């Protein structure tokens, strides 16, 4: 009889301990999700603020492809956008500046400027999109 009580106590204790561990992990997961959600909201606010405060250099300058993303793996709020200017001389030329910025640190991650037309413009745009996507979705942890 005492052995049966001891075995049932151990089994019952194991179930209670396991349920407490599961409960603690669930609470921790909810806290992480709340933190990620708050960071995503902060990222959205910073992206809107950045876009609204971007200086308008001249009538021939426009800003396009504003895309932002909070990456919980890297803890970065990444904003990618183009600054597009056109001017006219003997032939039409386009100047496009390609930017990728971490809004949490307000540091430029990537910046490329160039004159371009036709296939070169498509090539540079695709390169920029690839760089932005790497920062949007990379799996490595950023060094602090």
Describe, in plain words, how this protein is organized in 3D:
The protein is of the alpha+beta class. Helix content is 50%, strand content 31%. The chain contains two helices and four strands; from the N terminus they run H-E-E-E-E-H. It has helices at 2-53, 118-137; strands spanning 61-71, 76-88, 92-102, 107-116. The longest helix is centred in the N-terminal third of the chain and has 52 residues, at 2-53. The N and C termini lie far apart (60 Å).
Features:
144 residues, alpha+beta, four-stranded antiparallel β-sheet, 2 helices, 4 strands, 50% helix, 31% strand, elongated
TL;DR of this structure?
By secondary structure, the protein is of the alpha+beta class. Helix content is 50%, strand content 31%. Strands 1-2-3-4 form a four-stranded antiparallel beta sheet.
List the helices and strands and how they pair.
Elements: H1 2-53, E1 61-71, E2 76-88, E3 92-102, E4 107-116, H2 118-137
By DSSP (H or I, 4+ residues per run), the number of helices equals: 2
Strand content: 25-35%
Distance between the termini: 60 Å
Average pLDDT level: 81
How many domains would you count in the coordinates?
Answer: 1
By helix and strand content, what is the structural category? alpha+beta
What is the overall silhouette? elongated
- The oligomeric state of the chains shown is single chain
Helical proportion?
A: 40-55%
Q: What kind of sheet is the major sheet?
A: 4 strands, antiparallel
| Order of H and E elements | HEEEEH
Q: Strands of the biggest beta sheet: in what spatial order?
A: 1-2-3-4
Low-confidence runs: none
- Got a strand count? 4
Radius of gyration: 26 Å
């Amino acid at each position: 009889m005492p052995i049966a009580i001891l075995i049932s106590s151990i089994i019952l204790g194991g179930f209670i301990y396991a349920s407490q561990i599961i409960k603690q992990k669930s609470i921790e997961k909810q806290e992480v999700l709340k933190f990620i959600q708050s960071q995503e909201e902060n990222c959205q606010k910073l992206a809107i603020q950045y876009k609204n405060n971007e200086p308008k250099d001249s009538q021939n300058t426009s800003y396009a492809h504003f895309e932002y993303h909070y990456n919980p793996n890297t803890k970065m709020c990444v904003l990618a956008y183009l600054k597009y200017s056109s001017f006219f001389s003997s032939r039409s030329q386009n100047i496009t500046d390609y930017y990728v910025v971490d809004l949490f640190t307000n540091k430029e991650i990537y910046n490329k400027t160039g004159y371009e037309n036709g296939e070169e413009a498509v090539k540079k745009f695709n390169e920029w999109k690839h760089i932005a996507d790497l920062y949007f979705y990379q799996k490595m942890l950023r060094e602090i």
